[in-house]
Design goal:
Number of strands of chain A: 10
Order of helices and strands of chain A: EHEEEHEHEEEEE
CATH superfamily of the largest domain in chain A: 2,3-Dihydroxybiphenyl 1,2-Dioxygenase, domain 1
Shape of chain A: globular
Oligomer: homodimer
Strand order of the largest sheet of chain A: 1-4-3-2
Strand content of chain A: 25-35%
Structural class of chain A: alpha+beta
Largest sheet of chain A: 4 strands, mixed
Chain lengths: 147, 147
């Protein structure tokens, strides 16, 4: 058993529309098979797949409104970058869920929902105690600290 | 705007219990702040945070039962590895949602739910047309194919 997290699949109402949305906020539509689209990221790759088809693949009923217990996050270089990216996502069709604001953990962040309700936190974290962005733009958790 | 996906936060009912579960299936509890735990993966890092606290952080009501529209996936080296890992996760307290089976896309996969209902697909994909695992154990989407 190891630490693999290889793919995140988001259930979406319209695969083509969802792919167009993610392209419009800066992602690349790497493989588009019609029923499923794969997009690279700085971390785990994303897949976009029909909500009903994905539910059927798991064998579960296609329920689930309200908070779904998952947030995806992007970590930017400044509070100004957060505000700008938040506005860009909303201009591209995302829903403004919570406007960026100063957080008690020292950062600046807000939440948008993509057109299918998947939540993204757009954040700036000035601390390097727990994590930093490496030279490839990937978030790295720092080594454990003895406290 | 770029392709950052830096952190995936899962809402959980009991942060300590969830962290113990992920340790028991092979992940590392890198930073444990009590209210939130950070775990490295081969891709995007995972965070475990209280379901109600995460809902409150987004500003949304803490609803959401049934299928939540998100699956996480790990891609293993063989069908036998899939069966073994599936059994290991269930032995560690995960729910067997769909037993591993041959899939129409040519692979072998099944679904487990972690103790908070987050779905993981445990899969083997023999094709290298769309993706392959690199020397660091990370899934890489292959370059686009002209069709």
């Amino acid at each position: 058993m190891d630490q693999r997290l290889d793919l995140i699949t988001l259930g979406v109402r319209d695969v083509a529309a969802a792919a167009a949305f993610y392209e419009s906020v800066g992602f690349e539509r790497r493989h588009d098979l019609g029923t499923i689209v794969f997009l690279p990221t700085t971390g785990t790759a994303l897949a976009l797949y029909g909500w009903e088809a994905l539910a059927a693949d798991t064998g579960l009923p296609a329920l689930g409104e309200g908070f779904r217990g998952v947030t995806l996050a992007m970590n930017l270089d400044s509070a100004a970058d957060v505000d700008r990216t938040f506005a860009d996502w909303v201009a591209a069709g995302a829903t403004a869920v919570r406007a960026p604001e100063a957080k008690e953990w020292g950062g600046h962040s807000g939440y948008v929902a993509d057109p299918d309700g998947h939540l993204w936190e757009i954040a700036h974290n000035p601390s390097r105690a727990l994590m930093r962005i490496d030279e490839h733009g990937r978030l790295r958790l720092t080594p454990p600290v003895t406290r």
